[in-house]
Structures are given as structure tokens and as C-alpha cells.
Design brief:
- The protein is an alpha/beta fold.
- It has 15 helices and twelve strands.
- The protein folds into three domains: 18-97 and 281-301, 3-Layer(aba) Sandwich (Rossmann fold); 100-184 and 309-319, NadA-like (Rossmann fold, 3-Layer(aba) Sandwich), CATH 3.40.50.10800; 192-276, NadA-like (Rossmann fold, 3-Layer(aba) Sandwich).
- The protein is globular and about 50 Å long.
- The two termini are 27 Å apart.
- The chain binds 1,3-dihydroxyacetonephosphate and iron/sulfur cluster (SF4).
Length: 320
């Protein structure tokens, strides 16, 4: 992870009307706030654009704003910087990393890739800039199936870093994929047993799941998709009850769009809040305000890595 030094913050700097102060700073800086659905509700509500990883990278590619405030995790803000080298890209908390991105260290991945010289590399966007630089095409959970389907049948593929999304894409496309064994701690926390118990308790509920979940959970799903796809499905389905197997931040939007429907977060193996992403939840409204006020912490990237990481991202945007 490439980062700048952390700024010193003073808690007395926080104004009472945070929403008002953030909106003022937005005008002053000509800034746009891009937020992922896994952010806390207040951040979702103040964002200019709220979306999944694909939507966020498309917005980052097209924004006219001079400053991008990224309310998400490091790899997302890094993607925005790769696309916008001359803009200031701020991440409210530089420790907002990602277990999945961390599960694919560049040197180990380089050695793994060398074992398959005739393979192309398709990497899920949840990876570091160095892994993107070692990849041919980036994908997200929204477009992974569509992208793999565009690759000629005789072209072998390495899929990294998420083994669960990789397995799901392989099933959907009928393609053999060489998988890197990475995973997300949040999506691997759901308990199959407790989901079955919930289904028995709520027989009319539909179970909807993100493809980063493990196969024993996915096999009980009535619908599988990215966060945007799950939100859309929950609005369009005639069902009025859903068990939601992804980070529960998305439920804020599901409830706003369909206030009469019931959304039950899928339970974890322990009675913990482990289904909340500990990285995404490091960002707070206060830190977002301070990042804009101090114009820091900012995302900084070595230019050679940025240039190499840009090509597979552009390829994804063309193929989406
Ligand atoms: P999407 O935004 O593609 O749904 O992925 C979810 C996720 O895990 C982001 O970290
Ligand atoms: Fe990473 Fe999982 Fe958190 Fe998404 S939910 S940012 S994949 S740890």
C-alpha cells in the first residue's frame, strides 16, 4: 500500500453541523464525495455518488471535480488516483484496507503468475495497485462474468485474488479458471447453519448473496449479485422479506428504496458483528470532514505502477 504520512488531528476542530460544514468544503474545494454502500448511513446520505465498485470507478473516470473524496477502502481510492493522476484523492482513514487485497502479496503473485506463462490475468478490483499492474484486465463483481465471456475459449485464464468470486464465475461461464486462493473476511463469516435456521423461521424470505460468499452459503441463495444488483433485485422482486448475505451497510439503501419490505442481515458464525467490514467502517463523518479540511490523507502512487495499473482498468471500462 502506498500512502502519505498521517496528518495530526484535533478533536476540537469538529464543527457541530458536520453536514453543513462538509457541504461548504465541497463547494470550496470543487470536490466530489464518492461512497460505497458499505459505508455508515450518514456518509451514504452526504455522498454525491453512492455505488458498487464498478459504478464508483466509472464515476471516478468521468468526474470534473478537482478533488475526489473517497469514502470506501484503500484499493477503491487508489483506483480513483490511477484514473486521475493530477487530482487530489483523499481517503478519510488510510488504515481502511481490505483483507482480500492483503491476501494477494505482489511478490508471491508474481511467482504464481510465472508458473502459467500462457495465461492472461483477470483480477478483481479488490487488489492493490501492484497486483493491477501485473494484470491484463480488471473486473468487479458486476462485470466479472461478462468479461470472462468475452475472452476467446482457447485463452487460459488466471483469476485473482478472490477464490469465491472465481469459483462462481467459473460455474457461470463454464470456463476453467486458475484461482488465486484469496478471500474476504466479511463474506466468509456467514453461517450456513444459521441461514438455514432463518429460512425455516421466515419461509417466504428470499436469500440474496454477494458472490464473495463461500459455496455452502451461495447454494442457499435465491439470487446472487454485486451490491448494486442485490439492491435492484430487492426492489424488483415481489417478495417482501429478504435475508441479505453481504455487508449490512447496503440495507440502509434497501430500506430507503422499499420501506415496507423487511431486510434481515445474514448471521455470522459467532454472535458478533463480523459481517460489518472493519475496514470500511473506519471511515466516519468526522474523519471525512477532517480529510476535506486538511486536504489529507491523500493517495500517492509511484508513476510507473500507476501507468501499468491503468491499462487493465481501462480495458475493464471498455469491456463493461
Ligand atoms: P461490489 O462493490 O462489487 O459489490 O463489491 C463489494 C465489496 O466487497 C467491496 O469491497
Ligand atoms: Fe475487502 Fe471484504 Fe471489506 Fe470488501 S467487504 S473491503 S472485500 S474486507
Amino acid at each position: 500500500m502506498f500512502t502519505a504520512a498521517k496528518p495530526k488531528t484535533n478533536p476540537y476542530e469538529i464543527p457541530r453541523d458536520l453536514f453543513g460544514a462538509i457541504n461548504e468544503l465541497k463547494k470550496e474545494l470543487n470536490a466530489v464525495i464518492l461512497a460505497h454502500y458499505y459505508q455508515e448511513a450518514d456518509i451514504q446520505d452526504i455522498s454525491d455518488y453512492l455505488g458498487d465498485s464498478l459504478g464508483l470507478s466509472q464515476q471516478a473516470a468521468n468526474t470534473d471535480a478537482e478533488v475526489i473524496v473517497f469514502a470506501g477502502v484503500h484499493f477503491m481510492a487508489e483506483t480513483a488516483k490511477i484514473l486521475n493522476p493530477n487530482k487530489l484523492v483523499l481517503l478519510p482513514d488510510l488504515d481502511a484496507g481490505c483483507s482480500l487485497a492483503d491476501s494477494c502479496p505482489p511478490e508471491e503473485f508474481r511467482a504464481f503468475k510465472a508458473k502459467y506463462p500462457d495465461h492472461i490475468v483477470i483480477s478483481y478490483i479488490n487488489c492493490s495497485a501492484e497486483i493491477k499492474a501485473l494484470s491484463d484486465i480488471i473486473c468487479t463483481s458486476s462485470n466479472a462474468v461478462k468479461i470472462v465471456n468475452q475472452i476467446p475459449q482457447d485463452q487460459p485464464i488466471i483469476f485473482a485474488p478472490d477464490r469465491n468470486l472465481g469459483r462462481y464465475v467459473s460455474e457461470q461461464t463454464g470456463r476453467h479458471l486458475v484461482l488465486w486462493e484469496g478471500s474476504c473476511i466479511v463474506h466468509e463469516t456467514f453461517s450456513e447453519k444459521r441461514i438455514i435456521e432463518l429460512k425455516v423461521e421466515h419461509p417466504s424470505a428470499e436469500m440474496i448473496a454477494h458472490p464473495e460468499c463461500e459455496p455452502p452459503v451461495l447454494r442457499h441463495a435465491d439470487y446472487i449479485g454485486s451490491t448494486t444488483a442485490l439492491l435492484k433485485y430487492s426492489q424488483e422482486s415481489p417478495s417482501d422479506k429478504f435475508i441479505v448475505a453481504t455487508e449490512p451497510g447496503i440495507i440502509h439503501q434497501m430500506e430507503k428504496a422499499a420501506p415496507d419490505k423487511l431486510f434481515i442481515p445474514a448471521p455470522s458464525t459467532d454472535n458478533c458483528a463480523c459481517n460489518e467490514c472493519p475496514y470500511m467502517r473506519l471511515n466516519t463523518l468526522e474523519k471525512l470532514y477532517l480529510a476535506m479540511k486538511n486536504k489529507a490523507p491523500e493517495i500517492i502512487l509511484p508513476e510507473d505502477i500507476r501507468v501499468d495499473a491503468l491499462k487493465p482498468i481501462q480495458k475493464m471500462l471498455e469491456m463493461s
